[in-house]
Amino acid sequence: MKQSVQQIFQRSLPFLACLLAAGLVVVLLNGLPALAQEQPSAPVSEQTPQAVTPQDALPAQMPGAATDSACKLCHADLTGTLALPSGDELTLGVDLSALDASVHGQHAAQQLACTDCHADRQRYQYPHQPPPAQNLQEYRADVAQNCERCHVSSELHNPGHLQAQDKTNLPNCVDCHGSHEVEPAAAMYAAPIAFCRTCHQTFEDPALAAVHTEVVASLDSPEHNCTTCHSDTVQPVDAQCKNCHSLLTSWVTLESGEVIDPHVTPAHIDASVHGFRDVDGKQYTPLACTDCHRNQQYTHYPHPPLEVANRRELTLQREAICQNCHSNIFDQTRDGIHNHALQEGNKQAATCFDCHGSHEIQPPDVPRERVVATCGSCHEDIKEQYVTSVHGAALLADDNPDVPVCTDCHGVHDIVQATSNEFRLASTEMCGKCHSDVNIMDKYNISTNVMETYVADFHGTTNVLFARESAHQEINTAVCYDCHGVHNILPATDENSQIMKANLLTTCQQCHPNASENFSAAWMSHYEPSVEHYPLVYFVNLFYRIVIPLTVGGFALFIASDVYRRLWNRLRRRKGQS
């Protein structure tokens, strides 16, 4: 009997195994979907946002993840919508092909389950509970919180919005990345401007609308996009100025119809004297925009409107900017002729900006012809005379370092009136600085006795006497430029030179209207008489140098001998009487 029971059990074992397997299949098919939805998860508030790597961003595969198909089977076929309390329509259908093609789909190292994003899972058990969101914006914000379970918090990663002053309407993860069709971030950065403009198309402030339209048109490289200005970190005011003005292309029109170009790039500043430079071995970095533009009104946008009618008023308004750093030079200009003209009402008189420029300031005398170009921008007629003169031609043709430019004669910042007696008296010494320099004049075979020969004649002697008396006393004797010219000085051999022999009489007659040809022929230039230059005068001088000492010496000897004889005779008579 016992033997037969064991045999019966052995024969029934395969049947019992099949029955048990069938029961397990039934349990799995009916129980696991609910089990997957009831899988516990930590509440969002308990999660600590932190930066994670792409591998860390993928959740561990859960036992119930395979039942994700239950959600997909249902929502893939839904075409309806769910009305939220606000009236917004929530689409219930899910495009599975878009989901599979997304960064969370079949190409991911580990696929996500629906309930990984739609949490808490108790709410998404079927039948679903009504969503607590009142509108679509709240619904997306609710879903976006679950992104932070794997990704960095939007408080740390929200390109272009982290520095927004108004935090009430910032986009969330879903607003930018989407929901089921999330694309790689690289796809967003491939066309960042178009992506941002899906939301930012209109602006309440017309000025903001205009500048964004202009700036967006200039964002033509991967390095320049919306985050150039709207960065994730606090930008210095200087960076904000340069970012914006380097992208501006349209000109600002003033009341007068004149225009101002607001386009300024960091390269303009860097290449100027206010950029990277080495002065006496000390390294300097570029000035910031706010070092010059210190008005706080201009550190924010929109800027206040320009309260000037024309460009000249703007230039005069900005003149004091240079004083902040160059106070000593600025004080010198107060005594100069240009500032005196401004004070007298001449608004066209030169200011710092007229001579030096604004953003692209270069060394004023490198190359030296830049001085001529600068002064010539106002004094065009004088520039035309100078460039054809002996000095200007040598400068422009040969870059001759020996010839004078405007500032060598007139000064730089404290320029005096060239028609004043002060300038007139000082002009001979001014010319003499170069023309008495042996090292310079020997190069051009020019006499260096200009000062000695000038002071030795009537003109120079009178000039010296007046200078000793008073520098402001009016004089009428000739100085260097009366004979040689002012800006139109030419070589003595030039047919148009004022001191050429054929033209010399006309030059003398400017002061001596009754002068004859003999009058002008008597002038020996600035040469001392020699065998080579004016030999007749030289020999006459030599004759007198010999004859006069001999004659005077002979008379002195005669007188001395006569005195001696008389004294000797007187002494002899006294001795005879005694």
Can you tell me about this structure?
It is a single chain. This protein is mainly alpha-helical. It has 29 helices and six strands. It has helices at 2-37, 54-57, 69-75, 96-101, 114-117, 136-144, 173-177, 185-190, 192-196, 206-218, 237-245, 266-270, 289-292, 311-318, 327-334, 337-343, 352-356, 369-376, 380-387, 390-398, 406-410, 421-435, 438-441, 450-456, 458-469, 480-484, 501-508, 517-521, 535-577; strands at residues 81-83, 89-91, 252-253, 259-260, 277-279, 282-284. A two-stranded antiparallel ribbon has the order 1-2. Strands 3-4 form a two-stranded antiparallel sheet. Helix 18 packs antiparallel against helix 19 and helix 24 (450-456) crosses helix 25. It is rod-shaped. The model is unreliable at 25-66 (pLDDT under 50).
Provide the fold topology:
Elements: H1 2-37, H2 54-57, H3 69-75, E1 81-83, E2 89-91, H4 96-101, H5 114-117, H6 136-144, H7 173-177, H8 185-190, H9 192-196, H10 206-218, H11 237-245, E3 252-253, E4 259-260, H12 266-270, E5 277-279, E6 282-284, H13 289-292, H14 311-318, H15 327-334, H16 337-343, H17 352-356, H18 369-376, H19 380-387, H20 390-398, H21 406-410, H22 421-435, H23 438-441, H24 450-456, H25 458-469, H26 480-484, H27 501-508, H28 517-521, H29 535-577
Antiparallel strand pairs: 1-2, 3-4, 5-6
Helix pairs in contact: 18-19, 24-25
Keywords:
single chain; 578 residues; mainly alpha; two-stranded antiparallel sheet; 6 strands; rod-shaped
Mean pLDDT metric: 83
Low-confidence stretches: 25-66
Name the structural class. mainly alpha
Radius of gyration based on Cα positions: 49 Å
Percent in strands: under 5%
Number of strands: 6
Biggest β-sheet strands, sense, barrel: 2 strands, antiparallel
N- to C-terminal separation?
207 Å
What strand order characterises the main sheet?
1-2
Shape: rod-shaped
Helix proportion: 40-55%
Helix count equals 29
